[in-house]
Amino acid sequence: MQHYILTGNETPRLKLTSGAQRQPVRGEVAVDLRAASLNYRDLIVAKNAKDNVPLSDGAGVISAVGEGVEGWKVGDRVVIGFMTGWVDGPITPAKQATSLGGQSMNGVLTEQIVVPADSIVRIPDTMTFEEASTLPCAGVTAFAALFERRPIQPGETVLLLGTGGVSIFALQLAKQAGARVIITSSSDEKLARARALGADAVINYRTTPEWQNEVLKLTDGIGADLAVDVGGPATLNKTLAATRFDGRISLMGVLTGFDGHIDTAVILSKRITLQGIYVGSVAMLSALVKTGIKPQVDQVFPFSEAEAAYDALRDAGHFGKLVIKIG
Asked: Which whole-number Å values give the CA distances from 214 to 29, 97, 207, 228, in the listed order?
């Protein structure tokens, strides 16, 4: 069985190696991976981990079933949850510790993985493995950002930052829910593609650096009902300004780091609900699959070019998701 491990270096990040296949025990299944997708988290992990198998998002075919597993058989097409121990209910430290492809658990950049049977979700025949592999992190994060706790309602305005995986999933899901969507990007070409997916208004934040004022203009001075902030400290204050009184912000981004000044006075005075998002449960993944969403795959790399996929992720020129084809 071939798999990649992290080297702990900036170049090359990955080393291809091989190891013995493990047979599933009671309550487990073996999945032969067919595709894996990348997330910004993977760049962070690559800087801080060594000898781990990376990537959290994978889809494939069941190749072996352990004792006591019901409802699954060899040949079933499945996608694996981001946290194999978070099946449903609220998150806990123990559930969070089961995140694939981090510093404590091996991930899916491998030909085969053994996981708990209750951590997988069946994928429809109409969805390719490449498409399904994009769902566990970015797709579920967008789903949680829009529908967890206080779901977006028809006619409400959603503000999305950028055109990466989470934002494009959120665009599709928000439009499916009947919301109005405003989206930002530094690329007019990407904004045109976002319009083609249903975006109602677009803002180039490079040519309009005070984009929060444009959001207010587009909402008659009121602001967005819900903002999905994937940037973090460098964007959050502008997102706060662009969000209406009693509005809400789903924050999951660390694209601009973890530290920075946050205008808490605006949060208080506008009574904004600020919700942290860290992916979601297997139950949310199942609900996402049932929406019939069509993931936007920007580029597919062969298994032999996994390093190039990381380079493309770092360069941030993609629209939607980057995928590595495994099988």
From this structure: 50, 41, 11, 16
Question: Residues 138-153: what's their mean pLDDT?
Answer: 96
Percent of the chain topping pLDDT 90? 91
Tokens of 228: 């999905």
- Spatial neighbors of 69 by CB under 8 A, at least 6 apart, are 24, 26, 27, 28, 29, 117
DSSP 8-state symbol, 304: G
Q: Is the pLDDT of residue 73 over 90?
A: yes
Q: How far apart are the first and last CA of the chain?
A: 12
Per-residue model confidence (pLDDT) at position 254: 66
Confidence of residue 156 (pLDDT cuts 50, 70, 90): very high
pTM above 0.85, yes or no: yes
Backbone angles phi, psi at 272, to 5 degrees: -80, 135
Pairing of strands 224-229, 243-251: parallel
Cα–Cα distance list, 297 to 37, 131, 171, 246, 293 (Å): 9, 7, 14, 35, 12
Cα torsion for 317, 323, 324, 327, to the nearest 10°? -160
Q: What is the mean pLDDT of the chain?
A: 95
CA-to-CA separations, 39 to 33, 36, 79, 146, 324, in angstroms, rounded? 17, 10, 16, 19, 12
Phi, psi (degrees; rounded to nearest 5) at 241 = -65, -30
Cα dist. 272→211, 239, 246, 265 in Å? 19, 11, 5, 10
Before 12, cis peptide (omega within 30)?
A: yes
Burial label for 241, CB within 10 Å (0-12, 13-18, 19+), is middle
Helix (H) or strand (E) holding 216: helix 211-218
Task: Give the strand order in the sheet containing 273-276.
Answer: 201-204, 180-185, 157-161, 224-229, 243-251, 273-276
